[in-house]
Amino acid sequence: MNCPISCINKSLKHKNNIVLVGAHHDNEKPRDFNVFLSEFVKEVIDLTNNGIKILRRDKLFYKFRIKMFLFDAIAKVSILKIKSVTGYSSCSKCIQKGEYVKDRVCFPIISYIKKTHDDFNMLCDPDHHTGQICWISLKSI
């Protein structure tokens, strides 16, 4: 299984602005994404605090910030330690138990309680989480 960490450099104006910053290659996904991503996290924290040094157009320092993370469904559940989309408490936007209808989990109730970032970090919906919250869900960067 390949697990790439890619980023898009928004300051580059050409089409080839996707950069590979890390990768995992094995027969299975990483056992612990906190360990897999630890070096990436250390470097991101350093770059966020100190900027990046690139000599371009007589400018040496550039600010560095992450605007967003984008994951496929498998990476999302592995990194955020949450139920997969087929689980009864799998909705990442609201606190609602799914129902098994016609061979699949559905969320038929229209009224719901919306989850906030703090709700997620405080494990307000314990059935939604499958393990220790990964660093990426916290506002540490």
Would you write up a description of this structure?
By secondary structure, this protein is of the alpha+beta class. The chain has 2 domains: 70 residues, no CATH class; 65 residues, no CATH class. The protein has 4 helices and 8 strands. Strands 1-2 form a two-stranded antiparallel sheet. It has a two-stranded antiparallel ribbon with strand order 3-4. The protein has a two-stranded antiparallel sheet with strand order 5-8. A hairpin with a 2-residue loop joins strand 6 and strand 7. The longest helix is centred in the first third of the chain and has 13 residues.
Task: Give helix and strand order, one letter per element, not per position.
Answer: EEHHEEHEEEEH
Strand content: 15-25%
Major pleated sheet = 2 strands, antiparallel
What gross morphology would you assign? elongated
Structural class: alpha+beta
**Helical segment count:** 4
Into which percent range does the helicity of residues fall?
A: 10-25%
Strand order, largest beta sheet: 1-2
- The pLDDT mean sits at 79
Number of strand elements: 8
Q: How many angstroms does the end-to-end distance come to?
A: 27 Å
Number of domains: 2
Q: Note poorly predicted spans.
A: none
